[in-house]
């Protein structure tokens, strides 16, 4: 029997995984002209929702963008900047302008110096090989900065199609919904269609001037802690209020546990302070390095939680990352999905980070 396909975007329909492309409730699977959940929501509620793919599938999908004349809007999450920036994007967009939209700035402390942050973003984008036409800082949650996003799209688009790209959970749906309501005539039913020449279900949302917003699936990066922890622990790891930094004065040979997700050892260096930027919902335990192995063996999944013991079973084992912070530099130890630890000493430090295998752990210039 031929597999049924979505009458909107053409993706093969399935009724097993709600967040995977082509989802439709079982009862609608056999109907004539059934549409997938994403197309259904755009058509009926003028509302985009998320579907996901991995990076390889995504880059295949994006292969054709370089030869089009379009604007690429890349959304990243400020709480997980290095975890949500799409590496290799530049190669695929060709000469098309890229607007970098930095979302979730409501999570940063209220005293943040926004000009400095913007410079930091520009520098980080460059280090990731991305040439950006403009950077806009915003918060979909607080509805701040979105006017600036629409303005920037207007001034850069010049009657071109708009591709919206981003990793999962960066706020892409929220932004697209805003663009739809700003650009299209809501009295008219929106139609969606498969974007020509693509192998995946990029969905084309027509605009009044004959051009389109092209909503691409969100990319899943398994290098982000938030993608691999048990779903029930997401609430503890994802901050939903402005971060409240906590500063620890540490001597060398001291350890911090973040639940039982990550262990941070200050291996060597003069006594100094480290400022932790993680969700307030995540318990932190401090101990001596010499006691850390035993503490972990005895208390993982219970006192050191989340995750609980059952959740830990489903996670990859830790790998150790040794990082050397040079004297007189301002650096963060960045752990994708968890947050970051700013090193405040001027004399340098050697630290070890134990994190689940595959999670991105790195040093970066301090964000704040
Ligand atoms: P998508 O997967 O990229 O389409 O992202 P969504 O729009 O579905 O949002 C993902 C999650 O991030 C949801 O839990 C949102 O509530 C949250 N979120 C989106 N925008 C913001 C924001 O500006 N600030 C904060 N704190 N959370 C946000």
Task: Describe the protein.
The chain has 368 residues and is an alpha/beta fold. It has 2 domains: 37-220, Rossmann fold, CATH 3.40.50; 227-365, no CATH class. 24% of the residues lie in helices and 27% in strands. The protein has 11 helices and 19 strands. It has helices at 37-45, 55-62, 81-84, 89-93, 114-127, 146-157, 172-183, 225-228, 234-237, 289-299, 309-313, and strands at 52-54, 70-77, 98-103, 134-137, 161-166, 193-194, 203-206, 212-215, 218-220, 246-250, 254-258, 262-268, 272-278, 284-288, 318-325, 331-335, 339-343, 349-356, 361-365. The strands form 4 sheets. It has a 7-stranded mixed β-sheet with strand order 4-3-2-5-8-7-6, sandwiched between helices. The chain has a 5-stranded antiparallel β-sheet with strand order 10-13-17-16-19, with no helix packed on it. The protein has a 5-stranded antiparallel β-sheet with strand order 14-11-12-18-15. Strand 6 (193-194) and strand 7 (203-206) form a beta hairpin. 42% of the residues are buried. It comes from Cohnella kolymensis. This is GTPase. Residues 55-222 form the CP-type G domain. InterPro entries: G_CP_dom (IPR030378), GTP-bd (IPR006073), GTP-bd_ribosome_bgen_YqeH (IPR019988), Mito_lipid_metab_GTPase (IPR050896), NOA1/YqeH-like_C (IPR048422), P-loop_NTPase (IPR027417).
What is shown here, in short?
The chain is of the alpha/beta class and 368 residues long.
């Amino acid at each position: 029997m031929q597999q049924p396909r979505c009458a909107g975007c053409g993706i093969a329909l399935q009724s097993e995984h709600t967040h995977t492309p082509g989802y439709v409730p079982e009862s609608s699977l056999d109907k004539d002209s059934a549409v997938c959940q994403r197309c259904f929501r755009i058509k009926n509620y003028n509302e985009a929702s998320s579907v996901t793919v991995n990076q390889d599938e995504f880059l295949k999908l994006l292969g054709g963008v370089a030869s089009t004349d379009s604007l690429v809007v890349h959304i990243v999450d400020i709480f997980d900047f290095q975890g949500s920036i799409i590496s290799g994007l530049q190669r695929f967009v060709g000469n098309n302008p890229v607007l970098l939209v930095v979302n979730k700035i409501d999570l940063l402390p209220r005293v943040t110096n926004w000009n400095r942050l913007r410079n930091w973003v520009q520098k980080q984008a460059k280090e990731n090989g991305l040439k950006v036409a403009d950077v806009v800082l915003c918060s979909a949650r607080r509805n701040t900065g979105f006017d600036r996003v629409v303005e920037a799209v207007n001034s850069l688009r010049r009657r071109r199609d708009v591709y919206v790209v981003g990793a999962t959970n960066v706020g892409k749906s929220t932004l697209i919904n805003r663009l739809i309501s700003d650009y299209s005539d809501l009295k008219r039913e929106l139609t969606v269609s498969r974007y020509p020449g693509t192998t995946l279900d990029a969905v084309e949302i027509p605009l009044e001037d004959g051009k389109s917003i092209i909503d691409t699936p969100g990319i899943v990066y398994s290098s982000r802690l938030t993608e691999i922890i048990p779903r029930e622990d997401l609430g503890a790891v994802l901050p939903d209020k402005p971060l409240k930094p906590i500063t620890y004065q540490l001597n060398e040979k001291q350890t911090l546990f973040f639940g039982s997700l990550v262990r941070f050892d200050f291996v060597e260096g003069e006594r100094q302070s480290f400022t932790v930027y993680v969700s307030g919902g995540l318990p932190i335990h401090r101990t001596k390095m010499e006691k850390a192995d035993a503490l972990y063996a005895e208390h993982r999944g219970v006192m050191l939680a989340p995750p609980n013991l059952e959740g830990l079973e489903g996670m990859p084992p830790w790998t150790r990352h040794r990082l050397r912070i040079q004297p007189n530099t301002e650096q963060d130890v960045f752990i994708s999905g968890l947050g970051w630890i700013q090193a405040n000493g001027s004399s340098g430090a050697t630290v070890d980070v134990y994190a689940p295998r595959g999670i991105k752990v790195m040093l970066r210039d301090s964000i704040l």
